[in-house]
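R.M. (postdoc): so does anyone remember the format we settled on? I'll just put the structure tokens first.
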């Protein structure tokens, strides 16, 4: 069959078209395959995203059928999700939440806007967020988000927020109640917050008033005010402190301002009143200075080491005690170096292991309680060391040189031993009673006198017990209580008592109770038995001597009267012979008669003196009371003595002042007293010597002085010159002065007038006798 070209052309066109269509179909198929694979890949990717996404999908068809992600089963704690949402068990969620879920799904099915709700799975802490959205096919999609961890985090954050809120409230309350001003500046450095102390300091009505008016606590000039200081602190990022004067509540005070930068939010600050602190610091400085001045005045050495263990202070006794150089100490040597130097100079105690010894002393800095030590230095010096750690970590050392005290203590111990040995060897019985009446000390003699054993005394019995023990040994047992009374008087009343006591064996004792300075009482007993016997014998002898003296005095008085009669007759006949009644006498006979008259005169004077002394001893010396011109009496006595002085070739000087005046008394006796003094001076002065007679007076008394440059009176004889019939070793061979009656009579006459006689004498220098008479006797 032959085809026409047209047909062939048509067939060719059809075949070409068919080929093109096939090629297009293949290309379209390939493109669809690629799109399908891309869609499948995208679907897989989306499915993977859904699987890994934070939300689980629950699809609702328009008829309410459910299609849920398998993972939602685990989230809800169910084995399988029901076909319809209404079939969901009501106990899946907490009460009321299941119905709320249904209402949320129905609203989405009706095309309501998306809405979310939090669901709590019953029986667990899981929290889910359900977001319902309407689907384009008339259904709905419920997206479930697990908010359990976020809920927990939110709960923790809520608690933290609550805690921070409470803390902030507490801090705010603390800031508000702070006793010192505090403030906060905002980013513009203007006041944004102040406390009540700030309000009171600037005298504002309240905090709002202080902030609104911008009342600053510290005044300042441009560039130096509080704002510039706060800006500088913010720029530096460092806490800044400064001290400035401020007016707080109307008073000018010194405050320390602290600015605390808070980053871009602002600057906080507070002010502390340091006026009292500055005063306290000044007081502390003054106290430290006064303390160091006190250390300088101590006799003990003081060394103060600081917290760095360097020597911070020392006084002069420390310097002298350890012989250290001030230049070396000025470099503040450390504690160890000081100990090393002490060892080098021989001022540290000997130690076998010095490093260990030094390490032990180094612990003084940190020890809570340190005991004092005694250092025995080479050479026998004893040092008492008192270490005291200081609160600042330093150490105070006090060195006291106790060498002398130790030596004194040793000497005291020796003296105590000697005292105890002496105490026990005393012949007296000695006992020491304490204030409570107990016997503290006793000697061997005390024990033997009362017949007590050492065991009994070792119990230190009270005086009451001793009274019962010694009563039987007394001659009069009832007097045993006297011991108790003596101890009480000596210890309580602090009075001394003494007396005598006799024992039953015939012995006699003299006792004494004496209070001691320490409150104790010393009781002593001295055996006077032999003395008592001698005393009785002496008493009998004394009575015999006194009787003999009375007989002698009576004999002298009687003999004096008896001698006057023949002496008067002798004198009378001698005067008759001298007067020529028996005829003229030869020259030799006349001399004899004159010698007889002179002897009669001397003997009469001696008899008169003896009678005066006798009457004075008997108290029968008669004295006249009349006005006496003592100046005239003194001159008359001087005139009589001048003749005798001339005979002995003496330089006799008389000085009677007009102030002597008049006194009352017996003129004859006063003249006798002056005569005796002058006669005594003239008689004892060697030829060529000098005698001074001087008389003065004032409104109260009259003083008469008779002095000479004779041989003087030895000291051993001065106490006896006023005894009757005493003759000095340099007495003259004749005259009434040699009889030893002049000075005793002068003294008796002076004392009878209320006066005194005082004798001053030096061997080889002479003698002076001072007679003092009152103006009115």
């Amino acid at each position: 069959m032959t085809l026409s070209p047209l047909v062939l052309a048509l067939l060719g066109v059809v075949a070409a078209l068919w080929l093109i269509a096939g090629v297009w179909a293949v290309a379209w198929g390939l493109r669809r395959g690629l799109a399908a694979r891309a869609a499948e890949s995208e679907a897989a990717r989306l499915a993977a995203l859904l699987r890994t996404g934070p939300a689980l999908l629950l699809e609702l068809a328009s008829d309410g059928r459910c299609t849920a992600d398998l993972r939602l089963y685990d989230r809800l704690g169910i084995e399988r999700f029901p076909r319809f949402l209404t079939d969901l068990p009501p106990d899946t969620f907490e009460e009321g939440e299941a119905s709320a879920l249904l209402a949320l799904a129905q609203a989405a099915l009706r095309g309501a806007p998306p809405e979310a709700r939090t669901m709590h799975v019953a029986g667990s802490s899981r929290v889910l967020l359900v977001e319902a959205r309407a689907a384009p096919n008339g259904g709905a999609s419920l997206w479930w988000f697990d908010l359990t961890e976020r809920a927990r985090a939110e709960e923790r954050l809520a608690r933290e927020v609550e805690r921070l809120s409470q803390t902030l409230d507490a801090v705010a309350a603390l800031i508000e109640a702070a006793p010192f001003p505090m403030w906060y500046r905002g980013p513009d450095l203007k006041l944004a917050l102040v406390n009540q102390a700030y309000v009171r300091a600037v005298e504002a009505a309240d905090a709002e008033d202080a902030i609104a008016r911008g009342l600053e606590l510290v005044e300042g000039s441009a560039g130096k005010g509080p704002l510039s200081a706060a800006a500088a602190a913010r720029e530096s990022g460092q806490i800044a402190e400064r001290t400035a004067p401020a007016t707080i509540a109307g008073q000018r005070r010194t405050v320390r301002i602290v600015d605390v930068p808070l980053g871009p939010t602002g600057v906080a600050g507070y002010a502390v009143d340091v006026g009292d602190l500055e005063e306290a610091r000044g007081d502390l400085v003054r106290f430290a200075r006064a303390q160091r001045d006190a250390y300088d005045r101590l006799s003990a050495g003081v060394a103060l080491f600081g917290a760095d263990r360097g020597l911070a202070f020392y006084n002069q006794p420390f310097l002298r005690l350890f012989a250290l150089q001030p230049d070396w100490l000025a470099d503040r040597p450390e504690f160890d170096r000081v100990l090393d130097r002490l060892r080098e100079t021989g001022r540290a105690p000997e130690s076998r292991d010095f490093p260990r010894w030094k390490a032990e002393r180094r612990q003084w800095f940190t020890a809570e309680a340190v005991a004092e030590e005694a250092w025995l230095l080479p050479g026998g010096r004893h040092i008492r060391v008192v270490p005291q750690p200081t609160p600042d970590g330093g150490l105070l050392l006090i060195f006291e040189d106790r060498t002398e005290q130790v030596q004194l203590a040793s000497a005291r111990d020796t003296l105590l031993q000697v005292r105890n040995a002496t105490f026990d060897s005393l012949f007296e019985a000695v006992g020491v009673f304490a204030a409570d009446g107990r016997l503290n000390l006793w000697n061997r003699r005390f024990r033997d006198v009362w017949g007590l054993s050492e065991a009994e005394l070792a119990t230190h019995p009270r005086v009451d017990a001793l009274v019962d023990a010694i009563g039987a040994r007394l001659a009069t047992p009832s007097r045993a209580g006297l011991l108790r009374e003596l101890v009480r008087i000596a210890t309580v009343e602090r009075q001394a008592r003494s007396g005598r006591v006799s024992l039953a064996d015939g012995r006699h004792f003299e006792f004494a109770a004496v209070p001691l300075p320490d409150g104790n009482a010393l009781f002593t007993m001295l055996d006077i038995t032999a003395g008592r016997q001698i005393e009785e014998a002496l008493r009998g002898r004394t009575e015999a001597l006194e009787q003999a003296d009375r007989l002698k005095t009576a004999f002298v008085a009687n003999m004096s009267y008896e001698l006057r009669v023949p002496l008067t007759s002798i004198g009378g006949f001698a005067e008759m012979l001298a007067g020529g009644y028996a005829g003229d006498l030869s020259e030799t006979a006349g001399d004899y008669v004159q010698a007889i008259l002179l002897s009669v005169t001397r003997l009469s004077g001696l008899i008169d003196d003896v009678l005066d002394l006798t009457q004075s001893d008997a108290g029968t010396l008669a004295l006249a009371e009349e006005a006496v011109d003592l100046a005239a009496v003194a001159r008359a006595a001087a005139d009589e003595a001048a003749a005798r002085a001339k005979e002995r070739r003496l330089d006799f000087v008389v000085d009677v002042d007009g102030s002597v005046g008049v006194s009352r008394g017996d003129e004859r006796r006063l003249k006798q007293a002056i005569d005796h003094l002058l006669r005594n001076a003239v008689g004892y002065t060697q030829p060529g010597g000098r005698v001074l007679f001087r008389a003065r007076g004032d409104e109260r008394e009259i003083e008469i002085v008779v002095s000479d440059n004779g041989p003087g009176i030895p000291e051993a004889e001065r106490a006896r010159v006023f005894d009757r019939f005493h003759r000095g070793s340099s007495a003259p061979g004749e005259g009434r002065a040699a009889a030893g009656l002049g000075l005793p009579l002068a003294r008796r006459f002076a004392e009878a007038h209320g006066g005194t006689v005082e004798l001053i004498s030096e061997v080889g220098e002479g003698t002076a006798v001072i007679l003092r008479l009152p103006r009115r006797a």
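R.M.: ...and that's the designed sequence above, right after the tokens. Also worth knowing: The chain has six domains: 1-48, 54-146, 178-273, 279-407, 426-527, 623-774. Residues 529-578 form the longest helix (50 residues).
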